[in-house]
Amino acid sequence: PGSIVADVMTTPAITVSETTRLERVAEQLTQQRIRRMPVVGAEGQLMGVVSRRDVLRWAASRVPAVSRQAG
């Protein structure tokens, strides 16, 4: 028989809620050394996935244009 997802998945799942601050998501992604986290609603239902790239884009959008051009 072939392998199944349960054989290789990370448990327990590390999730965040829709209302988690992005700074906290960035901390968790870094501390847990993971690239993506499921986003769950109030009742635990899957709402989406947030990735390191999503957080980096958000962070880059907060840097003033002058700072980005100075480098």
Keywords:
single chain; three-stranded mixed sheet; 71 residues; 3 helices; alpha+beta; 18% strand
Give a description of the structure.
With 71 residues, this protein is an alpha+beta fold. It is built from three helices and three strands, in the order E-H-E-E-H-H. The protein has helices spanning 22-32, 52-62, 65-70, and strands spanning 16-17, 36-40, 46-51. The protein has a three-stranded mixed beta sheet. A hairpin with a 5-residue loop joins strand 2 (36-40) and strand 3 (46-51).
Blueprint of the fold:
Layout: E1 16-17, H1 22-32, E2 36-40, E3 46-51, H2 52-62, H3 65-70
Parallel strand pairs: 1-2
Antiparallel strand pairs: 2-3
Task: Please report the distance between the alpha carbons of the first and last residues.
Answer: 55 Å
Whole-angstrom Rg: 16 Å
Helix tally?
3
Q: Give the averaged pLDDT, no decimals.
A: 90
Beta-strand portion reads 15-25%
Structural class given helices, strands, pairing? alpha+beta
Poorly predicted regions are none
Secondary structure: helix percent: 25-40%
The count of DSSP E runs of length 2 or more, i.e. the number of strands, is 3
Largest sheet data:
3 strands, mixed
Main β-sheet, spatial strand arrangement = 1-2-3
Shape: elongated
Order of helices and strands: EHEEHH
Care to give the gist of this entry?
This protein is an alpha+beta fold and 71 residues long.
